[in-house]
Amino acid sequence: MASEFAIIEQYFSDVGKAAENTLLGVGDDAAVVDLPAGQQLVVAMDTLIEGTHFPQNTSPADIAYKSLAVNLSDLAAMGAKPAWFLMSLTLDNDDPQWLSRFAEGLKETSNEYGLQLIGGDTCRGKLAISIQIAGHLPNGQFVTRQGANPGDIILVSGVLGNAALGLAQQQGNLELTPALRSHCVLALNRPRPRLELGPFLRQFASSAIDISDGLVGDLKHILKASACGARISLESLPVNQWIEQHGAWEYALGAGDDYEICCTLPAGLCGEVDNWNNANPDCRLTPIGEITESGYYLQDGDDMINLDQRQGYRHFA
Ligand code: ADP
Ligand code: MG
Questions:
Q1: CATH number for the domain running over 4-138
Q2: Are 287 and 151 in contact (CB under 8 A)?
């Protein structure tokens, strides 16, 4: 096994573009960064463990991508712009081929999103990647789970259920057409964090959340934090044709792994949503229901299904 110093030096000392606000990056006891004037720091952390968050045979580049994308999605939900990250890497071996493909994936994604790797930790054990990410936004403009009000419209970005459908396909549980298959596997392995929504959320949203643990469970976090209820409608959910034709709504409601954003907006701002959708056809916002005083319901035709007891993905029961 190569020493961790050699591994850091060879693969992780030069990931992403040196940001002007980084005074000291990888190589010292700690990193030192400045914040742009008038901005606040927004920090999040997410861990990916082999066998739990990705199957054992996932490509190193896909693992690298997803480790960053899940973290970026949390910043997106706050309305923040990404800046740098720290990475704690637990490796079960020092396979140079794996490491170089992983590092390449990390570099590609870091460059794409304007991120710099400024430090971390490296140790031996079952493969796990833990990333702490930081970004910033103008003072006081962060978007939280707490601001939803009765009467607000509820919106989600993109299409729901594709990632879960991709996983089911990979696990051999169903057979999709080749075109839909590649679309869904891409959604699973290369989820697009919705960073472009930042300015819109900061300006208009009363609350927002990343729905990677499943829409129904994650929206419930908004309801709890904002002390209100919601009614969403099944037929309004943005899903692909397969889910609609098979009535397989569970993929969209609860399966998770869609790195989309759910947000709420005062009803008077519908016109802003139209403007956004016209200008951003690849990151459409779809109204799926409204915030109410209390209760949590899914409307399916004439049926009202109570969602109060449903939960999102949990590691511990
Ligand atoms: P220490 O003994 O002070 O914890 P390390 O040997 O863990 O130092 O790390 C040395 C330097 O390399 C530090 O600047 C640290 O942030 C950086 N580093 C360690 N592991 C990683 C990694 N996986 N990715 C990026 N930087 C790392
Ligand atoms: Mg260390």
A1: 3.30.1330.10
A2: no
